[in-house]
Amino acid sequence: PMYSSIVIQRPKTAGDPVVRAPPALDIASLPKDDATTKQLGIVRDIIQNGWPALLAGLSFIISTNLSDELFVEVLASYQSLTNVSGMLGLNTPRDAFFASLAKLAVPARVVSSLESYVESQTPRSTTSFSENLGLSGPTQPPGLSERNMACLK
């Protein structure tokens, strides 16, 4: 469902054809004796049976305090598993990896701070009674980190 809404895009101008992503690879239509077909079948079985553990492991690792180099490698693994799952027609793993990447891209703390953020209409004094008590909303607009932006890409 999520993938279908992304891959079928409206034409940019009138008369242009609808833009569609390539369909998932049908392994059954490939020659059965070919070594590549057998390897694709093995990869499909690995992802089909191991995606929950892979997703849990990658989610745990990427949510820890990683160096930038490790973060990039884990994120590349997420993206690769998402792409391969889609290419092989494994919709459930593909959507699960997409959803996990979306949560990493826009964390719940950012969403909740957006809901409570109120842009001030008048300039604030340096200190006010309600601010000192913590009764007002956040004074800084919520934002995304570089890592959140990397997950969006």
Descriptive terms for the model:
153 residues; 59% helix; mainly alpha; 0% strand
Walk me through this protein's architecture:
- With 153 residues, the chain is mainly alpha-helical.
- The protein contains 7 helices and no strands.
- It has helices at 2-7, 35-63, 68-87, 91-105, 108-116, 129-133, 146-152.
Number of strands: 0
Helix-strand category: mainly alpha
- How far apart the termini lie comes to 20 Å
Helix content: 55-70%
**Strand/helix succession:** HHHHHHH
Shape: flat
Strand content: under 5%
Uncertain stretches: none
Per DSSP, the total helix count is 7
| Mean pLDDT over the full residue set | 76
Sheet with most strands? none
Radius of gyration: 22 Å
Summarize this entry quickly.
The chain has 153 residues and is mainly α. It has helices at 2-7, 35-63, 68-87, 91-105, 108-116, 129-133, 146-152.
SSE order and pairing:
Elements: H1 2-7, H2 35-63, H3 68-87, H4 91-105, H5 108-116, H6 129-133, H7 146-152
Helix pairs in contact: 2-3, 2-4, 3-4, 4-7
